């Protein structure tokens, strides 16, 4: 396995290293993504594909009276996220579980927000996964997608050759899949200079 496969599913020591690198490497795009929404302080949040846990920490800061759940299918990512957010877990404000976005292990209409930072590239079928997100969101809840690649920068395609199972989507593809999955109001934000994309979709 090449080291960059750890972006898809961190494993072993290389995965542990990658999870830490993702926390710092994605900090700016995540910050920009968060700037496009305003979160309720008592919100219930699910961060899917939580990686190293940095975005869980940001959600906890924004929703100080709420609760944040992290979900990842990588054991290494779950452990890293738990370590980074250990204090909040101890206080009962956070939990991090291993699980799959195509079968989210929660009942219907639980969360006010679901976020996906730098992760939908690896999801196994957008409509199925987006429908699962829609199912666990409360009515009026928001699904926040934030990608460092907006599908219009040809040089980004090199990553799809290096990382197995990766697909970079453009805005139209993501919006179409969100509509198919039942989302109604869909707002898109693009940083054209950096090719960043953020989508806030309301159930």
Task: Give the topology, please.
Elements: H1 12-25, H2 27-34, E1 44-48, H3 54-62, E2 67-72, H4 75-84, H5 86-90, E3 94-98, E4 111-117, H6 126-136, E5 137-147, H7 158-162, H8 171-180, E6 185-191, E7 196-202
Parallel strand pairs: 1-2, 1-4, 2-3, 4-5
Antiparallel strand pairs: 5-7, 6-7
Helix pairs in contact: 6-8
GO molecular function: methyltransferase activity
Keywords: Methyltransferase, Transferase
InterPro entries: Erg6_SMT_methyltransf, Methyltransf_11, SAM-dependent_MTases_sf
Description of the structure:
- It is a single chain.
- With 203 residues, the chain is an alpha/beta fold.
- Helices cover 35% and strands 24% of the residues.
- The chain contains eight helices and seven strands.
- A seven-stranded mixed beta sheet has the order 3-2-1-4-5-7-6, sandwiched between helices.
- Helix 6 crosses helix 8.
- The longest helix is centred in the first third of the chain and has 14 residues.
- The model has no long low-confidence stretch (mean pLDDT 93).
- Keywords: Methyltransferase, Transferase.
- Its EC number is 2.1.-.-.
- One of its GO terms (molecular function) is methyltransferase activity.
- This is Class I SAM-dependent methyltransferase.
**Strand share of the residues?**
15-25%
- Helix percent reads 25-40%
Give me the side-by-side strand order of the main sheet.
3-2-1-4-5-7-6
Radius of gyration: 16 Å
State mean pLDDT (0 to 100 scale): 93
Q: What structural class do helix, strand and pairing data support? A: alpha/beta
Describe the largest sheet: 7 strands, mixed
In whole angstroms, the N-to-C terminal distance is: 38 Å
Oligomer kind: single chain
Shape: globular
Series of H and E elements: HHEHEHHEEHEHHEE
Number of DSSP strand runs: 7
- Total number of helical segments? 8
Low-confidence stretches: none
